[in-house]
Write a structure and sequence with these properties.
Elements: H1 3-30, H2 35-52, H3 57-78
Length: 94
């Protein structure tokens, strides 16, 4: 897959999941879930997802690399540097 195709795929995926992400965040607000609690939910979901992807090494690797890129972008922003790249829609809610 070429780089433009990969970017298009990321944008399409971000657009597809954005409503679900917004619903989950709204649910956290309704349930008075604190940011630390929400973080634990996200970590638990990541753990379960990695287990579910055990038989899909390519998808699992892509997910892990995307997660690392999101974390690296966050760390660069915290350090006051501009991130090199950030998968479409994954740098925060819109």
């Amino acid at each position: 897959m070429s780089e433009p195709e990969a970017l298009t795929r990321e944008v399409e995926m971000a657009e597809k999941v954005r409503p679900l992400v917004n619903e989950i965040l709204a649910r956290f607000t309704q349930e008075n879930i604190t940011p630390p609690e929400a973080g634990m939910v996200v970590l638990a979901l990541i753990s379960r997802l990695l287990e579910a992807m055990e038989g899909e090494p390519e998808h699992r690797r892509y997910f892990v690399l995307t997660l690392i890129n999101v974390i690296n972008s966050y760390l660069l922003q915290e350090a006051g540097e501009a991130p090199q790249s950030c998968p479409a829609g994954s740098c925060g809610p819109e």
